[in-house]
């Protein structure tokens, strides 16, 4: 399990396959895996969404794949930072809260 308080965004790699991109009328959905570099563990998966019109224009440009990779990496970095700064609750604390809800104080 990854200790989000002890990691840096540089500790992760983002991985996606171009063949797995899903196009809809309005958006492009890119399934991405965020992988911890040291352990090889998949930290989490994320769908990166890009407007379809932007994606179509981007595909017409030279070097469009490199630009797409930069966009995906930036979105992954934002997701990693969000996880690093979120207040994660321990499982034992969550279970205690669930128990308290089942047995309210009277």
Automatic annotation (TrEMBL):
What name does this protein carry?
Uncharacterized protein
């Amino acid at each position: 399990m990854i200790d989000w308080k002890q990691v840096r965004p540089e500790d992760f790699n983002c991985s996606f396959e171009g063949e797995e991109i899903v196009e809809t009328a309005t958006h492009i959905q890119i399934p991405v895996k965020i992988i911890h570099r040291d352990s090889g563990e998949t930290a989490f998966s994320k769908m990166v969404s890009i407007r379809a019109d932007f994606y179509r224009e981007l595909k017409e440009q030279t070097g469009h794949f490199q630009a797409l990779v930069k966009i995906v990496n930036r979105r992954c970095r934002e997701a990693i930072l969000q996880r690093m700064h979120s207040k994660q609750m321990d499982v034992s604390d969550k279970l205690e809260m669930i128990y308290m809800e089942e047995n309210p104080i009277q």
